[in-house]
Structure formats: C-alpha cells, structure tokens
Amino acid sequence: MPVDRTIRLWSMAALCASALTLGGCSTQIADMPGVGLPADAPERPKEAGGYLPVHDMPPDRNEEAMKPAELAKIQAELTAARDRQATATTTPQKPAKK
Fold this sequence. Notes:
The protein has two helices and no strands. By secondary structure, the chain is mainly α.
C-alpha cells in the first residue's frame, strides 16, 4: 500500500471514531445547564411533548360561514372587477407623440 493511501485510511478511521465518540456525548451535553441563556428563559420540560393530534377534526359549526346574500355580493364584486380588468387591457392605447 502506498504511504498516501495509508495516511488517508488512518485519517478517515480517526474521523469516523471521533464522530462516533462525540455523537455519544450529545445526550450528556443536552442536559447541561445552559450557558448564556437569559434569566427569564423557560425551564426545559422534563418529558418530551407528545405528537400533535393531526387526525382530530374541529367541531362542526353551528352557523354558516357566510350568508348567501354576502356570498352573492362578493361574487358580484369579483365579477365586476374581472370585467373592469378585461376591458382595461383590451382598450387600444394611443401611440406616443414624438
């Protein structure tokens, strides 16, 4: 084996060993008191929080989200705005005077 390959092999092995060693220490480091934390920082919870209830559906509404009259008014306003935009883009513009 050439010397360069041997050095590269040993350096990769040392890098992997140090990564594993430092990874094993992360649990102890996480429990150390915080350095530089503000005095009013909340305490860390003793137990990790549970999963969020993603499948819980909100209760049904007692009333409609929008009354039919409001819905018709909004639809009419949107239609009018669309028509104004359509006519504004189709009007030919006068050429600029030189």
